[in-house]
Queue: 2 jobs
Job 1
Amino acid sequence: MKIGIDLLHFATADYYLGLDTFAAEKNLDVDKFYIGIGQEKMSIAPPDEDVVTLAAKAAAPILDQIDRNDITAVLFATETGVDQSKSAGVFLHGLLNLSKRCRVVEFKHACYAGAAALQMATTMIRANPKEKILVIAADIAKYDVDTSAEATQGCGAVAMLMTESPRIIEIEIGSGYFTDDVMDFWRPNHRTTALVDGKYSTKVYLNSLKQTWEHFTEQTGKTFEDIDYFCYHIPFTKMADKAHQTLIRKTGANVTPDEFKAQTLPSQRYNRIIGNSYSASLFISFISLLDHIEDNIENKRVSFFSYGSGCVAEFFTGVMQPGYQSLLMTDRHLEKIAQRTALTYAQYLAFYHPSEASEENIVYEPTNRGGYRLAGIENHKRDYQRTSDE
Ligand code: CAA
């Protein structure tokens, strides 16, 4: 039985901060960002955007193509959830008017949770092939102002419909995984911004890649040469380059510069202009590959490396399905990205780092476009609205 992704779509915020604007504000050389970390822009969520509204924008175009009553479960991966008890997926379930005969749960482990939710979905479908599961990976990456991590913020949400006989990619059985209790990145409950030991986090990421690769090859017998395209978790695109170099060194693979580019660059293009989106980042990388590769990659094998600080990591693969190209929503992705509005540094601060003392009662100005918004909070209860027929 083949199990995998039948449809997928992503959404990001309607606003961005250019790293040229950022560099000018901080009096830094812009090449530190364009070349040094490989980033150009960061998507910035306004106050009436959160992981629920981003997820709704990601999922709506998928639900328009199927009977939404067929969804049997929503597995919502996020490390920037909106409530300590109620799952973000239940807010989403209401907003999207899904069937009450549905299970909904939130998954968390830093940027890894999206991969965990995807693997859980494959297991549930193997047990009951009638399941049609909506896997969501959605996050808003936020660090303190005036830290070196501030240049690696961003946001996005990916929605993936997981089914039997998938039309886009079959997720293959067998993966390599790795857990180690380390403090490279974390966000205590009282904070809205993450804390990070930046240089250390990049080392732990690369070590986790080596560990998961070893386990993956033991589990599957596959080699580097069995994989055609490599998608990585991308906190910033230079990290994916370093990851691919590390894997090549570890496996002793013989890869020319042109092959290196072909294997990894198409999957970096969206992330370069969106920024980090934590749990969504790996899957935006996969969509970037599909939307930018010129060749038809039917029957080709794609690898996925998920890294969640703290840390949990997994390496797994999938095989592209015949006819997948007709199901891609490339034009929609490109159009939404092109329509984003540039922010000044001061506007970014007001949107992303507002100084709100209380979340008891707030009414938000309508700033976010695209169909779903957080209208306000009343008596600590979040009020979401559908704003158009998008
Ligand atoms: N022109 C070209 N390159 C330049 C440059 C210039 N003018 N100025 C600097 N650079 C280069 C540097 O040489 C360096 O290159 P190498 O990494 O190849 O050595 C690179 O730009 C970065 O510059 P710095 O070494 O000065 O690093 P920094 O202090 O700006 O910090 C960072 C970079 C650690 C990534 C920081 O942005 C950060 O902490 N980010 C958040 C943490 C993170 O993303 N970690 C990734 C792994 S953890 C993970 O993946 C989970 C997750 O999503 C968070």
Note: DSSP finds twelve helices and 18 strands in the chain.
Job 2
Amino acid sequence: MKKLNIDIERFRKSAIQAIKEIKDATALESLRIRFLGRQGGELTEILRSLKNLALEEKRRIGPVANSLRGEIEKALEQKLESLKVQSSKLKVVVDLTMPGKRIETGHLHPLTLVEKEIREIFKAMNFSVVEGPEVETEYYNFDALNVPKDHPAREMHDTFWLKQFGKTRGGRLLLRTHTSPIQIHYMETHQPPFQIVGPGRAFRYEATDASHETNFHQIEALMVGKDVTLANFKFVIQEFFKRLFKKKVQIRLRPSYFPFVEPGLEVDIQCVKCDGKGCNICKESGWLEVMGAGMVHPKVFEAVRYNPKEWRGFAFGLGPERIAMIKYNIPDIRLFYSGDLRFIKQF
Ligand code: PHE
């Protein structure tokens, strides 16, 4: 009688190890066939060969080999189970029917939106959009606009002066305190008649509060022609506010002073929230102050070599922050640059 020429214990270890290392169900099935296959399965062969063993050997090895069969079957079954669990987890990851993750996209800043809207309205009224430098000389920011050197009006605008690098023809350098210098640049290089708007940043060295920022925006407007009058001005801004707020808006003109216009005006619109009844936005007055304006001063025309007897024009400057605050009911101008996403995401 033969002896079994195989070490059952070693076979057991390597079989269990092989099952452990399997990564997918197909490979596991081939392993099952390799060990337990009817034809030539390794364990099947061992069990088959038992009958040829001496009785003593049969008694010793028989039960071990039989229980090994059970053990391998169980290990295969458990492995199959765990592969199923894994693959179902895998499916969740690539489940194409799951709703997608929302990708955060940026959008235009509320001020950009408002400025764009304002530009579009003026463009539709045949105004051209022009721009000018943020770093200006004293000449463009003040002198050419009829603000003389020692005039108190220069103090009205608290100026950021820049350190001088060399001499400029226009005097000291500064950050423009308003967009009115755009008027001068444009008139120096163009002949009337024309109508333009000039959006841009302006800077003032002053304390900030809910309605003042050191850096803010303005939109300058200038219309020059042979017979431009305040009536044209009134029509243009009435039309502008009607298009902006999508309803007829009452306006009110009050006399005011700016050195570069004569007469100078302050423009109020009837509060668009309460229609003049009084509310938190208009501080119960029923009116909102929205722009400075006036007829171009003859001295300004002289500065750009236009004949003041021949040409007439109106100019105004309006603050998009102020317009945005009115339109969207924003209580504090500082919110625009706060970088607070809770604010920005509302637009
Ligand atoms: N530049 C003026 C300001 O900043 C506004 C203004 C513009 C007034 C044009 C009259 C005409 O306050």
Note: Residues 178, 180, 258, 261, 292-294, 315-317 surround phenylalanine (CB under 6 Å).
